[in-house]
Structure formats: structure tokens, C-alpha cells
Design brief:
The complex is a heterodimer of chains A (802) and B (234).
Chain A: H1 3-14, H2 17-46, E1 57-65, E2 71-73, H3 78-87, E3 91-103, E4 112-118, H4 122-125, E5 130-133, E6 148-151, H5 153-160, E7 170-173, E8 176-184, E9 202-205, E10 227-232, H6 241-260, E11 270-277, H7 278-283, H8 286-318, H9 320-328, H10 333-370, H11 384-408, H12 411-419, H13 431-464, E12 474-480, H14 486-501, E13 506-510, E14 519-524, E15 531-539, H15 543-547, E16 551-554, H16 559-563, E17 568-572, H17 573-579, E18 595-600, E19 614-618, E20 625-630, H18 638-648, E21 653-659, H19 660-703, H20 705-713, H21 718-755, H22 763-790, H23 795-800
Parallel strand pairs in A: 4-9, 6-8, 15-19, 17-18
Antiparallel strand pairs in A: 1-2, 1-10, 1-11, 3-4, 3-10, 5-8, 6-9, 7-8, 12-20, 12-21, 13-20, 14-15, 16-18, 17-19
Helix pairs in contact in A: 1-10, 2-8, 2-10, 2-11, 3-6, 8-11, 8-13, 8-19, 9-12, 10-11, 13-19, 13-21, 13-22, 14-18, 19-22, 21-22
Chain B: E1 4-16, E2 21-33, E3 37-41, H1 48-55, E4 63-68, E5 71-72, H2 78-88, E6 89-92, H3 104-113, H4 121-134, H5 150-162, E7 168-172, H6 180-195, E8 200-203, H7 207-210, E9 215-220, E10 223-224
Parallel strand pairs in B: 3-8, 3-9, 6-7, 7-8
Antiparallel strand pairs in B: 1-2, 1-4, 4-5, 9-10
Helix pairs in contact in B: 3-4, 3-5, 4-5, 5-6
The chains are: A alpha+beta (802), B alpha/beta (234).
The structure holds adenosine-5'-triphosphate and magnesium ion.
The site of magnesium ion has 2 residues of chain B, from helix 1.
């Protein structure tokens, strides 16, 4: 390939701005999208974690296995975690982590920060680089109780205005004062151990984690916030996963069995520890999203390619005169190929350049919208990977399209093109190729539209499902109470409630967490000894009234039930049905002496469709969470809340303040995003494939113009011609639909486990709808190009063929 | 008295393009009677093809009135025009206009398939073979057009034009794409058909073939140069 050829190609393309624009924009945008998703897939699925010896990093899961051999919990109990940390010899470095939020009361704005409590080896395990100061060392090891803090670079900038002397300062949090000893470097990439959405701002030594001294000694309470990560020793890497798991399990289990042997509840229960490579632990659910995105992007690329193939076909037909002249003056087949290659290469190069821009924008969009849902998105960047993938695609597409063009050119017939004054057939798209283009467009479009419509339906159902409780006019508040005896705390909260109720804007106050928050608890039936693992929540007597959650049987808690902390509970209808499938659950008793006094309607949690067994029990008067209902049309804001708190006690601080509507929107954010994305993709797919089909069918109608004219000359009417063309393309349409059906079937069989949540017989109407939409689109694509022939006197069609 | 098949009264046609307006036909008056054999000739660009396509309802006139067998067909809808073309007019084009994918049989049968009476397949077959025999090609019934010589293709086109029993054959330069031997054969077939009673209106450049017609019409710049001297068939 030489400069002259490229210059030639450039000059001839300059004459065809619309063609160039269509090819470059379609290809640039779809390639950009594809490369974005490819890079995302690479970062999430293939790219090593950016930490030293990352293949030796493991996360350890703690499984509590019930006497019925079911996994009852997947989280560590505190004593088991500490035992593992202190006694294990499998890992050369190990890290404990616990995450929580807190309010820095020493700063005037009292900001909420995300805190990770960590052990010192965190810094070396994740090779954390410091901007200033130091990380945790031996002096901060477990049980050293050294009150120091490390800030992230962002927290330093945002909360401490990037002050240079920050290291001489302290910060107060939960009544403790911590000396700031270091700030992490900006380039540091946090391992998302606590989920993609959690971005730590402040690191504190493990000793200060928010688990109370009492809880730290309980062998039966597991806590999902407790995380163990370790770097396995070289000599153990030879072992199988089962061997290593067994080593850890034995270590923890024996100790645990001794400790809980006294508890009747844990009779027959056991513990298993499971290692998982840190990389796959971090990815967890993200994998499915990536595969879905990949399918979507590949589908779009496929449609785009079919469309572009189609544009190239028309372009080559247009160029036949030029190619014929080249051939006539002695250009060989290979030279013609180089000609075509230069032009295609130039176009694809421009498309790839545009794609780089799209990738750049796409990364920001992905980071902005999916940063809280997908792990490792921070690591997306224009990289060697995206660059080499671009080059590979460039070469591949150039070769494919050039071959396509060349296949159309019948070199030997080119010469006769000139001799027969343009009526030759040196270049024609075979019917077979046209049918393949049509079928592939239809197959891809059908499959893609169907998948998107299914995801859309699922998402929109979640968005629109009634929750079964009131969200408007209610604000959920979490207080940061100073460390004190329970009675004192209760006094403060009761005083605050009275203060709030006196506020003119406030209608009612309930002492409870937002309606979506539940904890997992185990209950044993009094008579049958049957064990239930259920979601539980502590509330007061105002809760159900405020949320308009109806009691369907029995009664609500009384004020005395709450005040005296009576052994009563209210179950939701799902749990009631489990407890007493044929009768009433009222009066059902559990081993801990608690009795069911009421049955309440179930609520739906925003963003999920599953309704589990749930129960409600009296909250302690010291509970630090409130729901505040405002009078209709009134807005009780954060500042008003803070001033009410300060009246009661200057030391009270506000941990979080969010309306139930905001919370619902937040929980539904990913569903809304999914709904919008899938809808846009479905429309884009229909549009692109509609245009593509129109292009192909328009081309083939042009090719048949002469035949159509002749048929009309001997008496065919418009409808005869339409029928003819429909019949001719029905085969390709049918094949396309059949292929899409097979693709969907294969997808279903291959991923039925992951997709089972989406697949049911209700999808049949959706599938029929999709088929309908695609058929309508194809029909339009068939019909519209014919209008130019059948709506005008026949002579137009006949003349055009001359 | 012979019956008039086609009657054109003051037919005019002009084409409007961006820069100029072409007056292709200026007030044409022409009658073609049952059994006539009319040859239209004239220099290139004088409007012969335009006239023929108006007569064949392939195009509409800009002014004037046009009757086929006494029925006014000046302002028919596209579908009505299609029916009239199918029932009353047989076309023969310079470039044959056979459909490559269809066999000789199917090409010839095509007009019957669009016919309002929807003849059954036995009728179609009988009629197609009859017409192919008239042009001497009944032995090539299952061939594809590209397996035939130019002259043979044109004779298939004639068979196709005849198949629906039209009132008139409209023929545009039938020999333009043929060597002289094939051309002679085609002209011979047309001559036979006329002798057997078929009305023919033909555009031709070739004075030799124009002489075979019984009526000659000279066109110049869209107007008839010389009033036709209609000879009554003896
Ligand atoms: N669609 C059209 N638009 C504009 N002008 C047209 C159109 N069709 C024909 N003409 C003009 O009308 C005139 C008559 O054209 P026509 O094709 O009837 O000539 P012709 O006598 O058949 O010529 P030839 O012997 O070369 O076939 C010409 O001047 C031509 O340029
Ligand atoms: Mg002509």
C-alpha cells in the first residue's frame, strides 16, 4: 500500500461526503460502544488486580451451616474472625476490614464520612502509596488501641481543604479523637471489598470498629461487614482449593464447636471457610452485567456491519465505471483490490479515530452511572488494551469489507461493462448475498430487541410496583448518639421525640429504621423445634400507622408493649402463612418466649420483587433511628432537625437525613437506568436495522426496476408488485426470525440459571410483539422502495432501465 | 366500415425539467382501425417512443383525449390503466424485456396471470402453447431467455404480447437489437399476424420494414408530418 493509493482513495471519498459520513458515524459510534464494553469486560474479567502478587490474594467466606445442612449465613462471627486472624498460618499477610459511616464532629460542617477499619498489613497487601505521612504499622496492630487516622486524597481535599499541615491535626468521631498520620496518594486504587458503591474516605485502626464489646464476644451472631483478605504463602499455592479451605475450616471450626457446645440452638450446626480469589470475589455479580452489555454491543456492531456492508455494496456498484476504466487500462485484480483496500482502510481508520472519542466519553458515562454498581470501573482508561483492540478491529473490518466489495466485482465482466455502454453486469450483488444481509439483520435485530424488551419489562415492573407503604412526607433519620448507658440514650431520644412532635411541621414520629431495613435473625418454634431464619426489624407502636401498613389480623403493638419491651411480635402475611398454613398464626410461640400478636400486610422493597418472611418486634427506647412524618405540604429540613437536636443536647449529631421518597429513588436508580438503557437500545436497534433493511431492499428494488416496469407494462398492478416482492423476501425474513429464535434458545439453555429470573411464559406475548414489530419494519422496508415504481406511470420504471 | 381501435384527439405531451420544457408531442390526431398495420417513423428524438407509450397507457398525455375501442381512457387511475393494458394491449420492446429468472413458458404466461378473469392453468397452458406455435418456438418452452438468441427472444416477446388476445400490438423498434437475418424473421412473424387479423402499430427507423406496413405515419418534432392515407383492408 503506498501513499499514492491512499491519496487517490482520499480524493475519491471526498466526492461522497454523505457516504463517508454514514459509514464513519455509524461505525465510529458502534465501535466506540463496543470498545467501551470490551475494555470494561477486560478490566473486570481479565485484567489482573493492580496489587502485588494479586494471584495469591484470597477472600475468605465464613459459612454457618444449619443442622439441616443449609447455608444459614455467609458472614463471619466476630470471635471466629479474630481466631482466624490470630492463629492462621496459611497466609503470609492478612487483613481485617470492617466498614461503617461516621460523623466528624470536630469539623464545623459535621460531615458524614465512609470509614474502613483495617489492620496494618492492608497497606502493604494493597501496596498503598502515601501522598504525605505514613500508613498503619506495628504501632497500630490489633489491640494496640492507638487512636490515629489516615485520610484518602479526596477526603483530604474535600473535608480538610487540602491543608498542608493536616498531619498535625486531630479529628473527633463518635467521641474519640484521632491524630491524622497520613494521606493516601491520589493514584491509589481502593479494592472494593465492601461492594462497588462503597468509597472509603477515612481509615481507622481495626480496634475502633463500631462493633460493641458485647457483640465482639458473641459466637453466634454473624455480621456481613466483617471482611478477611489474605495473601496465601507460596508453598500453599500448590494445594487444591479444597485442601486450603479444609485447613482454615478445621482451625476455626474446632474452636467454635468448643465454644458453642453449651448452646442447644447450634446442636448439629457446623462452620465452613471458603477461599475465593480476590479477583472473582470483587467481580461477583458484576459478571452478568458485563456479559449482557457485551451481547448488546456485539449485536449492535453486527447490525452496524450489515448496514455498512450494504453501503459498501451500493458504493461499489456506483464505482463500477471507475473500476471498469481501471481494468480497461490494465489494472490487475490485485491492483483493484489494493484500490478498494485503501478506500476501506481509510474509512475504518476515521471510524476508529471517532471511536476513541466515543470511548473516552463512554468511560466517563460508565463511571458516573455504573460506578456504584460495578466494581473496578475506576480502572477504565484509554489503555494498551483498548488501543490494541482498536487496531485489531481496524484490520479485521478493513479486510472483511474489502473482500465483500471484491467479491461483488466480476473482473472479467468489467470490460464488457464499458463496451455495452453501461448496461453490463460487471458488478452485481448476488441474490444470495442480499438474502444473507437481510436474514442476518433480522436475526440480530429480533434477538436484540427481544432481550432488551424483556429487560425493560422487568425493570419497569420494578419501578412501578406498588410498595404497600407510604413514602411521601416521611423522612428517615439516623442519630449519632454519644457513648453512654442505654437509659441515658433512651432519655435523650425520648426528649428529642417530644421536641420534634412540638414542631408545627411535624405530624408524627416513630422510633424505627426506614421500612426497607431488616436484620437476619433465627427463631425456634416452641412446640415443633422447627428453626426459621427470618428478617426482623425493631419498631415502635406508631410505625404501622405512619406507614399505612395494614394489620390484617390480631393487633398492633401498644405503647406499653414498647415501653416494657414485652415479648411480642408481629409477623408479615408470608411468615404467618408459614407458621400456620391452615389456621391463624396469632398466639404462635417461639422458644425465646416471644408470641405472635398480629399479622401485617407484606411490603415490597423498592428494586426487588421477592417477599420474604419478616417479623417486627418492639424497639428499645434507646434506638437511634427515627421516622418523621410531616404535615401535608410541609417540608421539615435538615437544619430544622439539627436545631431540634441541639435544643435537647449539644452532643447529639445527625448521621443521616433522607426522605423515604429519595431513598426509594436511590434504590430504584439501577432499575430506572436499566429501563432507559434497554428502551434506547431497543429503539436504536429497530432504527438501525430498519435503515439497513430499507437500504438493502431499496437496492434490490433498483436492480429489479426493469423487471418491475415490464411486469407493470403487461398489466401487473401495484398490489401485484408488492405481493411479488413480499413473497420474494419472505424466505429471508423467515430464516432471520428462525435464526433469532435459535439464538435466543441457545442463550436460554446456556444461561438458564442466571436468566431464570427473567424467563417465564409471560414472555410469549413479548416475543410475539417483537416478531410483530420486526415484521412490520421489514414490511415497511419492502414496501417503501416500491412506491417510486408503483405510484407513477409505468414509463418511469421502464426508462430507468435504459 | 372498420371499427376504430385507438383514437387520439389532439394529444400533446410536454416534459418539464429544471432548465427547459420539451414539447415532445404537439396535438396528435390519429386513428387506428381494426386490422391496421401502422408504421411510425421519423428522426431520433421526434417523439415516436413517447407517442407509443401514451398509446400503451404507460404514460399519460398532457392534453387531448384518448379512446380505446370507443372508451375514454384519458384519465384512468393507475390500476384501471393496468387492467386496460393487460386486456387490450400487447407490447413488444426493442430490448425484448423478458424476465431472466422465468422460463419461456412463464414469460409468455405472465399477462394471463395478471388477467382479471384469472384463467386456470389448463387454459393458460393451452393458450401459451398456441402463441408459441404462432412464433415457431413451441419446442423451447422450458428454456430460460438467456439460452435463446436475440431473434428467438424477440419472438418469445411477441408470443407474450399475443397471449391475452389484445386489441392491438404496440411495437417499438423490434429489430433495433437484432442482426438482419433475425430481424427479417421477426418482421415475417409480425406480417403473418397482421394478415391473420392482428392490429399492429410499430415504430421503426428502417424504411424497408416501414414499407411492409399498410399505413405510414411520419413524425417530425412531435407533430404528424403527413396525414395518414388509410387504406381499407381489402
Ligand atoms: N422523461 C423525459 N423528460 C424530459 N424529456 C423527455 C423525456 N422523455 C423524452 N423526452 C424528450 O422528448 C423527446 C421525444 O423523445 P422520444 O424518446 O419519444 O424520441 P424518439 O422519437 O423515440 O427517439 P429515438 O428514435 O431516438 O428513440 C426528446 O426530445 C426527448 O429528449
Ligand atoms: Mg424511441
Amino acid at each position: 500500500m503506498n501513499i499514492y493509493l491512499i491519496k487517490q482513495a482520499y480524493l475519491s471519498l471526498k466526492q461522497k461526503p454523505i457516504f463517508v459520513f454514514s459509514v464513519v458515524s455509524t461505525m465510529g459510534i458502534t465501535l466506540g460502544a463496543l470498545l467501551c464494553v470490551l475494555t470494561l469486560a477486560y478490566v473486570m474479567l481479565i485484567k489482573p488486580l493492580p496489587y502485588p502478587d494479586q494471584d495469591r490474594l484470597y477472600h475468605v467466606e465464613h459459612q454457618l451451616i444449619s443442622n439441616e445442612n443449609a447455608i444459614d449465613g455467609r458472614a463471619f462471627t466476630y470471635p471466629n474472625l479474630m481466631h482466624l486472624y490470630n492463629e492462621q498460618s496459611l497466609f503470609e499477610q492478612s487483613v481485617l476490614m470492617y466498614v461503617d459511616g461516621g460523623v466528624i464532629t470536630s469539623l464545623p460542617s459535621e460531615p458524614m464520612v465512609a470509614i474502613s477499619f483495617i489492620t496494618p498489613q492492608w497497606f502493604s497487601l494493597f501496596s498503598a502509596k502515601m501522598a504525605i505521612g505514613r500508613g498503619f504499622e506495628e504501632s497500630e496492630k490489633v489491640n494496640s488501641y492507638n487512636p490515629v487516622a489516615v485520610l484518602t486524597y479526596e477526603a483530604w481535599q474535600d473535608k480538610f481543604n487540602g491543608e498542608a499541615n493536616v498531619l498535625e491535626k486531630s479529628l473527633t468521631l463518635g467521641g474519640n479523637s484521632y491524630l491524622i498520620i497520613g494521606v493516601l496518594a491520589k493514584s491509589n486504587i481502593e479494592a472494593p471489598l465492601a461492594g462497588a458503591g462503597f468509597k472509603t474516605e477515612l481509615y481507622l485502626p481495626w480496634d475502633y470498629n463500631s462493633i460493641s464489646e458485647r457483640e465482639r464476644k458473641r459466637w453466634g451472631n454473624d455480621d456481613g461487614g466483617l471482611i478477611f483478605v489474605g495473601k496465601i504463602k507460596e508453598e500453599y499455592t500448590e494445594n487444591s482449593k479444597q485442601q486450603n479451605d479444609q485447613i482454615l475450616t478445621t482451625l476455626v471450626s474446632e474452636n467454635w464447636q468448643n465454644e458453642v457446645s453449651g448452646h442447644a440452638f447450634f446442636k448439629g450446626w457446623s462452620i465452613a471457610l471458603k477461599t475465593k480469589s480476590l479477583k472473582s470475589f470483587i467481580i461477583s455479580d458484576g459478571e452478568r452485567s458485563v456479559y449482557l452489555l457485551l451481547i448488546g454491543a456485539l449485536g449492535l456492531l453486527f447490525i452496524a456491519c450489515a448496514n455498512i456492508a450494504n453501503l459498501f455494496v451500493s458504493r461499489t456498484v456506483e464505482r463500477q465505471q471507475q473500476l471498469a476504466i481501471s481494468a480497461a487500462v490494465g489494472a490487475s485484480r490485485a491492483q483493484l483490490f489494493r484500490n478498494v483496500l485503501a478506500e476501506t482502510g481509510l474509512l475504518m481508520f476515521a471510524a476508529i479515530l471517532l471511536a476513541q472519542f466515543v470511548i473516552f466519553v463512554g468511560f466517563s458515562v460508565l463511571q458516573y452511572y455504573l460506578g456504584n454498581f460495578l466494581p473496578r470501573i475506576d480502572e477504565l482508561e484509554l489503555s494498551a488494551f483498548s488501543f490494541s483492540a482498536s487496531i485489531l478491529l481496524l484490520v479485521l473490518l478493513t479486510v472483511v469489507f474489502s473482500h465483500l466489495c471484491l467479491k461483488m466485482i466480476n473482473y472479467h465482466a468489467l470490460n464488457s461493462t464499458l463496451q455495452s455502454s453501461g448496461k453490463g453486469n460487471g458488478i452485481q450483488v448476488s441474490k444470495r448475498m442480499r438474502n444473507i444481509l437481510i436474514s442476518s439483520q433480522i436475526a440480530t435485530a429480533t434477538a436484540l430487541v427481544f432481550i432488551n424488551v424483556v429487560l425493560y419489562k422487568d425493570a419497569i415492573e420494578l419501578v412501578n410496583q406498588p410498595l404497600g407503604y407510604q413514602t411521601n412526607n416521611i423522612t428517615s433519620v439516623v442519630l449519632a448518639l454519644p457513648n453512654a448507658e442505654s437509659d441515658l440514650k433512651a432519655q435523650k431520644v425520648t426528649a428529642l421525640k417530644a421536641e420534634l412532635l412540638a414542631h408545627p411541621k411535624v405530624k408524627n414520629v416513630s422510633q424505627a429504621m426506614r421500612p426497607t431495613g431488616f436484620g437476619t435473625l433465627a427463631l425456634t418454634a416452641m412446640t415443633t423445634d422447627h428453626r426459621y431464619t427470618v428478617l426482623g426489624k425493631d419498631i415502635d407502636d406508631q410505625y404501622f400507622n405512619m406507614l399505612k401498613q395494614a394489620i390484617v389480623e390480631g393487633e398492633n403493638f401498644s405503647a406499653a408493649d414498647i415501653k416494657d419491651d414485652r415479648s411480642v411480635m408481629i409477623v408479615n402475611d408470608v411468615f404467618a402463612n408459614k407458621l400456620a398454613p391452615n389456621g391463624s398464626a396469632i398466639g404462635f410461640k417461639f422458644k425465646n418466649g416471644v408470641e405472635v400478636i398480629g399479622v401485617v400486610e407484606s411490603i415490597n422493597l423498592p428494586g426487588t420483587q421477592r417477599i420474604e418472611s419478616r417479623f417486627y418486634y418492639p424497639a428499645s427506647l434507646a434506638r437511634n433511628m427515627l421516622l418523621i412524618e410531616q404535615h401535608q405540604g410541609q417540608i421539615f429540613n435538615r437544619d430544622e432537625m439539627i436545631s431540634a437536636m441541639k435544643i435537647v443536647d449539644k452532643k447529639l449529631s445527625l448521621f443521616s437525613f433522607i426522605t423515604l421518597d429519595e431513598y426509594k429513588d436511590r434504590r430504584l436508580f439501577s432499575s430506572v437506568t436499566t429501563a432507559v438503557t434497554t428502551l434506547v437500545l431497543a429503539i436504536l436497534t429497530l432504527l438501525l436495522s430498519g435503515l439497513g433493511l430499507y437500504g438493502i431492499l431499496n437496492y434490490s428494488s433498483q436492480m429489479r426496476r426493469f423487471e418491475i416496469g415490464t411486469r407493470m407494462a403487461i398489466g401487473a398492478k401495484g398490489k401485484d408488485i408488492v405481493q411479488l416482492v413480499f413473497k420474494d423476501n419472505a424466505g429471508a425474513l423467515g430464516i432471520g426470525l428462525a435464526v433469532s429464535f435459535i439464538v435466543l434458545l441457545v442463550l436460554y439453555l446456556g444461561f438458564s440459571e442466571t436468566l431464570s429470573a427473567y424467563i417465564s411464559l409471560d414472555l410469549l406475548p413479548l416475543f410475539i410483539l417483537t416478531l410483530g414489530a420486526i415484521s412490520l419494519l421489514s414490511s415497511l422496508a419492502c414496501y417503501l422502495p416500491l412506491r417510486q415504481f408503483i405510484k407513477k406511470p409505468v414509463i418511469h420504471s421502464l426508462k430507468g432501465s435504459e | 366500415m372498420s371499427t376504430a381501435i385507438l383514437t387520439l384527439n389532439n394529444i400533446g405531451k410536454f416534459f418539464e425539467t429544471e432548465e427547459l420544457e420539451t414539447h415532445a408531442l404537439k396535438s396528435i390526431n390519429l386513428t387506428i382501425n381494426q386490422g391496421d398495420y401502422v408504421a411510425i417513423s421519423g428522426p431520433s428524438g421526434c417523439g415516436k417512443s413517447t407517442l407509443l407509450s401514451i398509446m400503451g397507457l404507460l404514460d399519460v398525455s398532457s392534453s387531448g383525449e384518448y379512446y380505446i375501442e370507443g372508451v375514454n381512457v384519458t384519465d384512468l387511475s393507475l390500476d384501471q390503466a393496468a387492467d386496460v393494458r393487460n386486456a387490450k394491449i400487447g407490447f413488444i420492446f426493442q430490448s425484448f424485456n423478458l424476465i431472466d429468472e422465468l422460463s419461456v413458458f412463464d414469460n409468455v404466461a405472465l399477462p394471463l396471470r395478471y388477467h382479471a378473469d384469472k384463467p386456470n392453468s389448463a387454459t393458460i397452458k393451452k393458450r401459451v402453447i398456441e402463441c408459441l406455435e404462432k412464433v415457431g418456438l413451441s419446442h423451447r418452452i422450458s428454456h430460460k431467455p438467456n439460452q435463446l438468441s436475440g431473434g428467438q427472444q424477440q419472438r418469445v416477446a411477441i408470443a407474450r404480447a399475443l397471449v391475452a388476445n389484445p386489441a392491438v400490438l404496440l411495437v417499438d423498434e423490434p429489430t433495433g437489437n437484432l442482426d438482419s437475418k433475425s430481424a427479417d424473421q421477426v418482421m415475417e412473424v409480425l406480417d403473418q399476424l397482421n394478415k391473420a387479423g392482428t392490429t399492429i402499430c410499430m415504430v421503426t427507423h428502417d424504411p424497408r420494414y416501414a414499407d411492409m406496413a399498410r399505413t405510414k405515419v411520419q413524425l417530425l418534432d412531435g407533430a404528424i408530418l403527413q396525414a395518414p392515407s388509410i387504406k381499407i383492408a381489402s
